[in-house]
Design brief:
Two copies of one chain form a homodimer. By secondary structure, chain A is of the alpha/beta class. Helices cover 43% and strands 16% of the residues of chain A. Chain A has twelve helices and nine strands. In chain A, the strands form two sheets. In chain A, strands 1-2-9-6-7-8 form a six-stranded mixed β-sheet, with helices on both faces. A three-stranded parallel β-sheet of chain A has the order 3-4-5, sandwiched between helices. In chain A, helix 3 packs parallel to helix 4. The relative contact order of chain A is 0.17. At the A-B interface, helix 11 of A face helix 11 of B.
Chain lengths: 313, 313
Amino acid sequence: MALVTIDDIFDAAARIDGLVLRTPLVGNQRLSEEFGTRLLLKAENLQHAGSFKVRGALNALLTWQERGELPEGVVSFSAGNHAAAISYAGRRLGVRVIVAMPSDPVPSKVANVERFGGEIVRTDDLAGTLDELAEQHGFPILHPFDLPEVIAGQGTTGLELCADGPSPDLVLVPVGGGGLLSGVAAAVRKLAPSARVVGVEPATSNAMGQALAAGEVVRIGNPSATVADGLSAPFSGEHTLPHVQAYVDEVVEVDEDAIRAAWRELVESSKLLVEPASAVCLAALRTGVVEAPEGGVTVLVVSGGNADLSRLG
Amino acid sequence: MALVTIDDIFDAAARIDGLVLRTPLVGNQRLSEEFGTRLLLKAENLQHAGSFKVRGALNALLTWQERGELPEGVVSFSAGNHAAAISYAGRRLGVRVIVAMPSDPVPSKVANVERFGGEIVRTDDLAGTLDELAEQHGFPILHPFDLPEVIAGQGTTGLELCADGPSPDLVLVPVGGGGLLSGVAAAVRKLAPSARVVGVEPATSNAMGQALAAGEVVRIGNPSATVADGLSAPFSGEHTLPHVQAYVDEVVEVDEDAIRAAWRELVESSKLLVEPASAVCLAALRTGVVEAPEGGVTVLVVSGGNADLSRLG
């Protein structure tokens, strides 16, 4: 299977230019001092619709439009961020969006989808409902992570973090289905070849780790609940797995207590509202499962900000 | 009394360059759509020590150092942000910092001061305790707002917001003692002469409004409690009042319910952790006491991010 290249990512960047925010790379002095590394946050929580997901969604729809294949509607599944992103992109391009979401989603994520006119179908079987929706409506699937166009779009996050700051020595990326990790790793591998790229996933929702161990995609069904709801993918992808195998140094796991503690710490120290999924990278540093390069540059990709405020207090 | 000029602010910017963050001007699409204006946030919550206050603190100490008058220690009073800022600046320059703070401060603000080695004296009489500390230690007062060097330092916030974004039509600034408003207004008046500059203060802590009405400084003693703790100044200043009279179009008030609602809304829509004091500007737009320029550019100065997370939920 052909992997997404740096040229695909540059093309994606040109395609979505002006439609997405070039989010800031925010320094974090407190964490930098504590870890003895220059720690920077790529703040995709500030992105339109509240997460990096608009990058891939827009790149996919615009690519289809260029080919004269823009559909009337698309279907997908999502914990919420991809749903909001494709709703956002769909509204922009006049494409109807129908998306399967968990039966107990984060309320702010539902509001975010509805704000952009997306249609939500709640379900306890995301993958099954997706297939039903695709058949029922005859719309193509705009997959949350397992499409080359989506991976290339998410990769623009990696382009920007390499271009806008000092050359990174370590890049940490949250992992659900692996779309963000695949794209960022493809970009960083080329633009900062000596950097380590490490993916971090919740121990209770480790589809990528299981796939790497098995050497093939593993369907873990509905993963156990994780506070990092954005990372509860039921499987890694046929496309994302080979990208991770080719471009990523390591995928590690963190437990729920570590994610919860890191979530509060990241919000308080960075002054950014981030969602729990974005805290797994700090949790990996805190638990010591990943070591920060002393005197080097560490970039944490902050994937989104659609958090439930009532759970922060 | 001579007012701070644009040249003083440019000098301050050169003096503190590299020691403060040039904070991003963050777009807010949701609020922009709702108010029909291009709404931008000058995100000083991301500043070192969590607020704009380091600008003035560093400019004052560095100015004194240039004159060969750097003291061994300084005293001051503060709800917490100025205390953290002078502790930060003091640590940098080897100056001891002793600061009077309210007896029931926001816990994260205490932690912030202690982190930088500041010494806290808790009191219910900030102004009285300040005088005692100054006499006891023989240290000069590094006033939280009523010093030209502090006003010029805070004014660098105004320089940056004019330089880094589209020319503003309206700039909204939170008001406690008026140091930030004075400095920002001095900068904006010169760099974007047609912009309206409006200060916003809590109705329960309106020292500046009272001073403007009376035409002189009014000591309101200890102001009533406001959720916007950073704005509870016991008086406007001998220096800040004439700046506001000369440079500011209007100072308006917002009530506590409006501040609380705006606080949550600002955090959720911006994905920035801001403190309640920073929400008064959005409260002013929401209550209609200030109207956003339709089709124009509105900048809200987000003063700080040292918030108590447990009160957000």
